Amino acid sequence: MLHGYIFDRVSVLLRDMHFENTRQANDEGPEKGVRVELRLREPQDWRGSEFAAQRVVLDQPVWRADIFVAVGSPPDSFDRTHYHSRFEGLEPVSREWSDELTQQPFEWLRDELGDLTGVLERAGVADDGISEADGAELRRAAPEIAARAREVFGQVQAGELTSEVNRPFV
After folding, report:
1. Rounded to 5 degrees, what angle do the CA atoms 164, 74, 108 make?
2. What is the pLDDT of residues 25-34, one digit of tens each?
3. 76-79 long-range CB contacts below 8 Å, 24 or more apart?
4. Whole-number Å distance between alpha carbons of 168 and 47
5. pTM attached to this predicted model
């Protein structure tokens, strides 16, 4: 299941993931866990009457955290847990590692999402049109998002969520 937290100009998506091949030169085998992605919400032209349903487009990726473990590793090892501080177009930059992320991934996630300005700066994304209200709302929601990520991660590790292998994030 894809979970979404949608604010005025930003959104956070999360879902269970299972990869048999990471398609990277240093592929170390299958991994699974939860992916959390920050995206920009694209402004859309108004359609129809004041009561008409409106289009919501969450397209431009900004930042990603993958709380993964190698298949067969202890769930609390977080041995494949990494993040991508920015994207080049639609492609994430190379994996980045953090001791804090590996040691306390859900607390790290909460803190990162609570600092929207810092995440945008590190991603090289201009905050044009992103209001302080977005940052405040995301900061308030960050504990809930981190808790949901922990729940989904636990369900993946317990075999309760059996996602399609190599399924696209969307």
Report:
1. 85
2. 455 788 999 9
3. 78/102, 78/103, 78/105
4. 29
5. 0.89
